Model the fold of this input.
Amino acid sequence: MNLETKANAEPETTVQTGADVLVQALVEENVETIFGYPGGAVLPIYDALYRSEADFQHILTRHEQGAIHAAEGYARVRRKPGVVLATSGPGATNLVTGIADAMMDSLPLVVLTGQVATTVTGTDAFQEADIMGITTPITKHNYQVQSAYEIPKIIKEAFHIASTGRPGPVVVDIPKDISANPCFETDRSPFHLPGYKPTFKPNPLQIKKLSEALKKAEKPLILTGAGILHGGGSADLKEIVETFQIPVTSTLLGLGAFPGDHELFLGMAGMHGTYTSNMAITDCDLLINIGARFDDRLTGNLEHFAKNAVVAHIDIDPAEIGKNVPTDIPIVSDAGAALKEWKRQLKAGPENHQAWLDELQENKVAYPYWFNQPPKEMVAQWTIKKIYEATGGEAIVTTDVGQHQMWAAQYYKFSKPDKWVTSGGLGTMGFGFPAAIGCQLALPDEKVIALVGDGGFQMTLQELSMLQERHLPVKIVILNNQALGMVRQWQESFYEKRYSESIVACQPDFVKLAESYSIRGVKIETQEDFEKQIGELLDYEGPVLIDARVMQQENVFPMVSPGKGINDMVGVKPL
Amino acid sequence: MKRIVTLVVQNRSGVLNRVTGLMFKRQFNIESISVGRTEKEGISKMTFVVEVEDHRKLEQLTKQLNKQIDVLKVTDLSEKAIVARELALIKIVSNAAIRNEVQGIIEPFRASIIDVSKDTLSVQVTGKPEKIEALIDLLRPYGIKDIARTGLTAFSRGQQPQAAELNQYSLLK
Done:
């Protein structure tokens, strides 16, 4: 564009391409790690990465789905955007599941996709897919780069949008000619997004209303969501809760926002929540939702949900407030900022709620989670309990979706924030293992356990390559019941035991599979062996795959059947 | 209930797709859309007529639209004093004999004949959708060959009457 200025200023510099500009823009965003997979339309970018002396690493996964789930895990525990790079067409479409997953669970991602050259766009060219059209409904925002001139600005905007407000995935689609061609001038002006102004701070008057409601409440209850983790509000929450003795329940994704082993914690609520939590929501007279979105797996039938309660809802996304549950005290704010302001204002707690606390404590003792304990064979719940005991709750645990996920939520007590990485909203099988790799790369000193089912693991197990290549000490525990457990459970409960395609008896030898990647593999079949070995296996310095053979018939209880209110639980067993 | 919602948006490719996609995903039925540029460069305005179940759904709709990065402003005009217009082009079967008759029909509508051929006649009309419907009904017996409608476009009037004033002028009181 402005050839002369450039030529006059630095006559000897080699001409940079759009791809070089992109790499430079990523450096400026302090990117440390890119998860990706090369292909035709991103070859100029891969070439620029090869030539670049920038100080960040590229992680080559074995499937684009692995790359994006790894980036999600990275983003979750590192609290900064995960960066993904994939080629056009199939490369980009392989990312779709992960993009949708990140959208549902509000994880910040910047997804860079290649696109066919602008000269052939729209001609159904080789490896062309309308990735803008495909990803529009599952992104917070997306861009198609029109010229290399705008790359630095778009990248800045993309990182800003992905990581601020309610976090989410942003796709940047880059045509091949734009990354390949020389670029002489770039837009360095500061970006301006007039249509994007998230509210970070709460309205103090609304917080005052919340304090007044709390003072009046006889049965107050706090519901913790993942927004507290995104906003870093755990410490303030704990202080408020302990000072004013307010009981706490949690969503699936909010686990760890409040210590799981705390006396005032009632356990997770919802479809597979504790009896105590679900009854507390049913009976409470003030429900304070902090950073959760009242998902249907939490609320059950809305008619029966917190029907006696004044509902306060703190959320950074105004569209979430009142979406599912009518709200009396709406507070649009970052959960961390709202908790800080609440702590500052709050001088007195509820005046008359001792009876409520006593009742909840009694429930907690009388209706714990339970499972059948055979003498020798392992059951998944027991196995998870043992892992919790062996780690003291210090490890980062990732999961897929299904029975093992619910049991992990029930039996692994997350006592610190950011130790729990799971696919909540989208419920993605194949998420857990690559996500664990992302967590380990983000935090190399942490112990990371991928707790997966045999079904989900087989969806992304090719990423064992990545484990081997990077010597990442991730511990994979397959809770192997040779079935798609949750599908099997639903068929047992709702389809008269017609186990259509849910029993997966034919499996690889997981130990040999691990060994073929030069990873230590161990198969364990009895409680005795598990107890004997688990400590050593979790402390082993390299990666380990544990094929834990658990009983097939176990079901996740208690349970709220679909369409029922959360006060209507099956499988509740008094002690 | 029928609502008129206008959006001020940044004129970037894909923005209409984003907005209509959002409505599709959340099951709002769009009755008409009209889009055009505004006096500011790079800024366009969309006018939607949407069928919405209740006020809670409506609140969801405006909140979700507001979340879109390229959407600068969302306004629900339904309860305001507004100017709303639609343009329609109507081609009917006609011959020299009935041309005057048609002229007589369209005159009260302040519509005009904009094209005449041996056996057709094209009429242009602007106004509220009900007015256009009424004219179409009157022209239908002649045989309609083609209709092109722009969809509603609207904005609020320069002065909004106070609620009290409205009562004052109401026929019900």
In short: The beta strands of chain B are 2-10, 29-37, 43-51, 71-76, 82-93, 112-116, 120-127, 144-149, 153-156.
